[in-house]
Amino acid sequence: MNGLSTAFILLGLFLLGGVISFVKQGMSKSIITLLGIGATMALLAGILRLEVWN
Q1: Cα–Cα distance measured from residue 33 to residue 10, given in angstroms and rounded to the nearest whole number
Q2: DSSP 8-state assignment for residue 49
Q3: Of 53, 34, 45, nearest to 7 (Cα)?
Q4: For the range 32-40, what are the long-range contacts, defined as Cβ-Cβ under 8 Å and sequence gap of 24 or more?
Q5: What's the pLDDT at 14?
Q6: What is residue 52's predicted lDDT score, i.e. its pLDDT?
Q7: DSSP state of 38
Q8: How far apart are CA 27 and CA 43, in angstroms?
Q9: Domain extent at residue 48
Q10: Can you give the pTM of this predicted structure?
Q11: Which of 4, 24, 27, 49 is the most exposed place for a label (fewest CB within 10 A)?
Q12: Closest Cα partner for 20 from 37, 35, 4, 1?
């Protein structure tokens, strides 16, 4: 696991925590959707960059 994949995974988990927090606060659905898409993309980028797949 290299540094960039770790950074992407941590960023995705941070954004996922923001999604959960925004849902609890009752924020608008468009902000939650945008943040969720960003979290998903960051997590997928981190997982796909792992050297396990080689």
Answers
A1: 19
A2: T
A3: 45
A4: 39/12, 39/13, 39/15, 40/12
A5: 97
A6: 75
A7: H
A8: 23
A9: 3-53
A10: 0.85
A11: 24
A12: 35
Number of structural domains (the chain) is 1
Q: CA angle 22-8-48, nearest 5°?
A: 120
Q: Could you tell me if 13 and 52 are in contact, meaning their C-beta atoms sit under 8 angstroms apart?
A: no
pLDDT tens sequence across 6-15: 999 999 999 9
- The structure tokens listed for 49 are 């960059």
Tokens for 33, please give them.
């959707």
State the residue for tokens 């925004």: 22
Query: How is residue 32 written in tokens?
Result: 């939650």
